[in-house]
Amino acid sequence: MRWSSVAIALASAKSFAVALDPVSTSGNKFFNKDGSQFFIKGVAYQLRPLDPLIDTDQCKRDAKLMAELGANTIRVYHVDPSGDHDGCMKAFDDAGIYVLADLDTFDTYIIPENNYWNKTKFDRYAEVMDAFQQYDNILGFFVGNENIATKDDSPTAPYLKAAARDMKAYRDAQGYREIPIGYSAADILQLRPMLQDYLTCGGNSSETVDFFSLNSYSWCDPSTYTESTYDQLEAYAKNFPVPIFLSETGCIVPGPRAWDDQDAIFGPQMVNDWSGAIIYEWIQEENSYGIITYAPAGQPAGPDVEGGFLRKGTPTPKEPDFSALKSKWATNTPEGVHKSNYNPSRVSTRACPTSTAGGWWQVNGDVQLPTLGQILAVNTKTRSANVATETETVGPTATDGSVETTADSTASITAPPSSVTPGSSSSTTSGPASASTTSGGSMDKRITAFGAGVVGAVLAIAILL
Questions:
Q1: Where are stretches of biased composition, namely Low complexity (predicted)?
Q2: Beta-carbon neighbour count of residue 150 at 10 Å?
C-alpha cells in the first residue's frame, strides 16, 4: 500500500492504529469487537516442521503478500512454546491477519493406537496456550487434527472432548480471555456427522468444543454445489451450535484451481451456517498444493531447504492459483449478521450419537469423559479391548476406575441426507494424506501429500508410532 505523507509522519503510531481486536464467538458465529460478523479467509502456513512463527523478516514478507491476497487468517500446525513469537505475531497483526494454532506438539498427539489424555499432554498443551494467549490476533486453538480417520478410531473421541474440557478450564482458571478451543476433523462421511454432534452434545458448555472445523477436498474444479457434496456439508451444519468452517480445502485434481467452492461457502447456499475456509496451503512443496514459491523446485540441500524446496525468501505467486483465489475473495464479501441482531438460541444442540453394532461410531451417547490419565474400556460386538496398557506411562488413574461404554446393538444413527454410500467420494477427502513422520516416530501433523487422488479414491492416513 502506498502511504501518504501524513501516514508516514504517523508511522510510529502504526501498530496502535491497526492493531486487531480479539474475535469472540456467540452461537454459531464469530464476531468482531464492533459486533460485525467475522468470516475466515485463511491459508495453511507451516514453512518448517517445528515453528513457522519465529522468523520475523520472513513473516513480514509473507504477511504483506497474504494481505494482498485478501487473507485474514493463517493456520499453523506446530509451534514451539519456548520460541520468541512477538515479531511474527505483530507482523501478521499489522497485516490484519489472525492466527489459528494447534495446541498439540510432535510428541503429544491423542491417537487411536495409544488412547489417553494425561498430565504430560495437558502440560504441553498449556505451554502453547501460555505462549500465545497474550496476542489479540490469536483467533483460536485446536486440540487435534484428523485424530479420528478410520473405522475403529471413534473411541478416541472422548479423549479429544476431555482435552477441550480441560484446556477450557485451564484457560478460565488462568484468567485468559475466552479464546475459542476446537477441533479439525477429516471429512469422512461415516464419521463426520456423529463426531461433530458428539463434540458439541451433552448440554454442558464446559465440556464441548467452541468450534468445529473440517478438512475437506471434495470440491475439485470443475464441480458444483451438489456434485462436490457440499450440499451434504451444509445439511449437517444447519443451525449447528458452534461456529463451523473448513480448516483445509483446495483440491488440485485435475487443476488449475478455480476456487469456485468459495462462492458456495461465502454465498447464500452456506453463509448462514458456515464461517469461512482455510486454503491448503501457502508454500509450494512436494504435494503441489502451494499458492506461492520462494524458488523453483529441486534446490540443493541447505539450512532453508527441505524436500528440494526453499522455505525462505521473497514469496512469488504461483499462477493461476494465486490470482484466481485473490479474485474470488475480492468478490466474496458477505456482511453476515450483526451481533445485536443475532439470537444464538436459534441454533440447536444435537442429541449425542449412539453406537451401532459393526458400525463406524462406537461411542454410545453422552458417556462420562475421562479424567487425566484415565482409560476408557471399549466394548462392542465388533471391538472389545481395554485400551489401558502400561498404565504407569499415562499418569494417575482415576479413583473410580475406568469407565466402560457398551454399545447398544439396537441403536441406530440417522442416515445422512444423501444417497452416498461408504467408499464414495464423500467418505474420504481427495486431498493430501497425513503421513509424514519425525525422527522421534511421531506423526508430523502438517498434511504433506504422499498422493492426492481423484475424488472417490480412498486415501490411507498413516499414523506411525
A1: 414-442
A2: 16
Q: What percent of the chain has pLDDT over 70?
A: 77
The one catalytic residue in 207, 248, 281, 285 is 248
Please, what are the domains in the chain?
21-346 (3.20.20.80)
| pLDDT greater than 50 at residue 345 | yes
Task: Walk across the sheet containing 24-26 and list its strands.
Answer: 24-26, 29-31, 37-38
Residue of 189, 197, 184 lying closest to 354 (CA atoms):
197
Cell output for 301: 540441500
Active-site option among 146, 207, 234, 285: 146
Residue with grid cell 499418569, as numbered in its chain: 395
CA distance 248 to 226: 19
SS (H, E, C) the chain: CCCCHHHHHCHHHHHHHHCCCCCEEECCEEECCCCCEECEEEEECCCCCCCCCCCHHHHHHHHHHHHHHCCCEEEECCCCCCCCCHHHHHHHHHCCCEEEEECCCCCCCCECCECCCCHHHHHHHHHHHHHHCCCCCEEEEEEEECCCCCCCCHHHHHHHHHHHHHHHHHHHHCCCCCCCEEEEEECCCCCHHHHHHHCCCCCCHHHCCCEEEEECCCCCCCCCCCCCCHHHHHHHHCCCCCCEEEEEECCCCCCCCCCCHHHHHCCCCCCCCCCEEEECCCECCCCCCCCEECCCCCCCCCCCEECCEECCCCCEECCCHHHHHHHHHHHCCCCCCCHHHCCHHHCCCCCCCCCCCCCCCCCCCCCCCCCCCCCCEEECCCCEEECCCCHHHCCCCCCCCCCEEECCCCCCCCCCCCCCCCCCCCCCCCCCCCCCECCCCCECCCCCCCCCCCCCCCCCCCCCC
* Residue 146 annotated as catalytic: yes
Q: Which residues are bridge partners to 213 per DSSP?
A: 184, 245
Give yes or no: 113 in active site: no
Residue-wise pLDDT tens digits, 354-363 = 998 889 999 9
Among 47, 132, 60, which Cα is nearest to 92's?
60
Angle, helices 321-331 vs 56-69, to 10°: value is 60
pLDDT tens figures, 393-423 = 222 223 232 333 322 222 222 222 222 222 2
Chain-centre distance for alpha carbon 247: 4
